Structure formats: C-alpha cells, structure tokens
Amino acid sequence: MQKDSELEAQPTAVQIEEAPIEQDNLFGTPIVLDDHSDSSEAQPTLPEHMVTLTDQTSLADCAEPYRRELILRGKSNYTVTCFLSDLKMLMDFLGTDIPVGRIGAEHVTDWLMKLKFGNPGHVPAPKTMARRVTFLKNFFTWLEREHIIRENPAASLTLERPQPPLPDLLSDDEVQCLLDASKEDARCHCLVYLILRAGLKKEEVMGLKVHHIDLIDPQTPLVSIRFAASTNKQHRERRIALPAEFTTIFRRYQQSYHVTDVIFPCTDRNLNYILARAVKTADIKKRVTLQLLRDTFAVQQLRDGVSLDGLREKLGLSDEAWLESKEKYRRLAFPK
C-alpha cells in the first residue's frame, strides 16, 4: 500500500448522467428511485395533499412525501427501500389511518417489542433491530423538523449498534498474489487495482467513466468519484491519487477492451465473477469480495499512519456509515 502522502488529492464536483432505477412501490404503485436524475430537469411539483401535511395526516399519506425526503437527502436506494419497508410494517401494526400526531412513545416501543418478541422461535438479528430504530428516529425527526408533529415519539429511543464480526482481511502476501493473478486479464487487473489501491466501493466502480480518469501526469494518475448534483452527495465527492503503474494498467485495459465511455459496462454480478476467477487463480481460500478489498485498503491506510478523519475522506463515507465503519477499521488495524 502507498503512503498517505501519495494519496492526497482534492475533491471535485462534476455531474454524471445515470439512468433512474425503477422498483415496485411497497404501497401499491411503481415508483422511480431518481437518485441519479439530471439536475437540469425540474423537480416535479408535489400534489397539494402531499405538501400540506399536518399532525392529523394519516401515516399512510406520509409515505410518499417521506420517500421523496429520503431521496433528496441523498439516501441510497438500499436505505430508501429498507426504510419504506419498515414504514409499511409500522402501518400494519398501528393502522394506516392513524394520524401521525397521535403516535406516542408507547406506540413505537410496543411495535419494537412486537418485532423482537412477538414471533416465537424467530428473533430478528440485532443489526435489523438497530436499523428499525434508525428508521423510527429518521422518520419522526423529519416530521418534527417540518413542524408536522410537536413531540417526537422516537426521541427517547436508544440506538445500540451491534458490533459486526470482523472480516478476515487479506494478508500482504495474499494481496500480492491476487494482484499477480489478476494480471492475466486486463479488465480484472484494473478492477482489483482500483479497489486495493484506491478503496472504491462497488457502486463507485460501476459509475466510473473514462473522463473520470486523469492521466495528464502519468506519474500521478488520478481517479475522480462524482455524483449527480440531485443526489445531495457532493460532500462525498473526491479525487484519489494512484501509484504511477496504474497509468499502464488502465491504458492496457482500454486497448484490450476498447473502453471509450463507461469503464466497467457490466452488472455487479459480472464484477463478482471477474474477481472470483482471480481469487481462484491466486489459490486464496478466504471468501474474497469487493468489499473485503476495500476493507483491506482502509486498514492498510490506518497502519500507514493516515488519521481516522483522513481515512473517512478517502472512503467518502456519510455520517451514518462512518459511525459503524470507524470502530471496525480501528479494531482491525490496531487489535488489542
């Protein structure tokens, strides 16, 4: 891994175009999760009944405005889906017609207890319960912030984040073996190198385009991670410097695969297959995922002297994601 001084870079903010993602609405009709809509397009005007919410508005009528709030706040598609699913479960428990102003602390506590103990023989995972508490706090804080309710029934809930099991990271020898094995295919080599040496997430890798790679100075190649302005993720945009050898790796990949626009024009499943072949060639027996490569990068950064704040900038993590990741990486880098 390269020292921190080799990876210092300044963030930039350039918009990219992404296709909207359509999925089934948990409340009945298809919706489009427009995280990646073009900022030049005017946002649709909400119907009258969606913008005039009061404490007498039913829980069901808050669902669509809440979905839009999550998207405007830059929440991932996964978070939007999970929180809407939690909202539907809350509606099933309290009733769709209950006014949000009548929901008290005892209601949300009863719902959590029902989820945790109401199904004999099935105990939800601690992480799942923690996420549902996060949903309650997020949903009712939004209602309170918009002055729709006077008292937040989730304010007193305690969020106990369970510590996930620590991943079995790649050793330095395994990292080198994987890099050597990936050289058999230019696409695989580029993919593995980008994550092991820049710490990119899978979705960031899939969003890369050729113009995000700056090879003006071949000795200091740069990769820019960018989001559409409409996603409200500008604070996570960043530029990352890579070792000089990436210039040769990327140019070889461009020539071999005739890459002119999207760098990895395939599905996330294809990326997993590409990695799996290299892992098999390297004869690594661990379960190796793209996330494990990112974790390996993060821990090596801390061991090389990068501060926790510096690591967060390199990884581009949000406040919520950093709360969970910070302790994990600290424990991995400096076990007691």
Secondary-structure map:
Layout: E1 21-23, E2 31-33, H1 48-51, H2 63-72, H3 77-94, H4 105-117, H5 126-145, H6 172-182, H7 186-198, H8 202-206, E3 213-214, E4 222-225, E5 238-241, H9 245-257, H10 268-281, H11 290-303, H12 308-315, H13 319-333
Antiparallel strand pairs: 1-2, 3-4, 4-5
Description:
Keywords: DNA integration, DNA recombination, DNA-binding. Residues 57-144 form the Core-binding (CB) domain. Pfam families: Phage_int_SAM_1, Phage_integrase. This is Tyrosine recombinase XerC. 47% of the residues lie in helices and 5% in strands. The chain is mainly α and 336 residues long. It folds into two domains: 45-145, Tyrosine recombinase, N-terminal domain (DNA polymerase, domain 1, Orthogonal Bundle), CATH 1.10.150; 167-333, hpI Integrase, Chain A. The chain has a three-stranded antiparallel sheet with strand order 3-4-5, with no helix packed on it. It is elongated, with a radius of gyration of 22 Å. It starts with 20 loop residues before the first strand and ends with a helix.
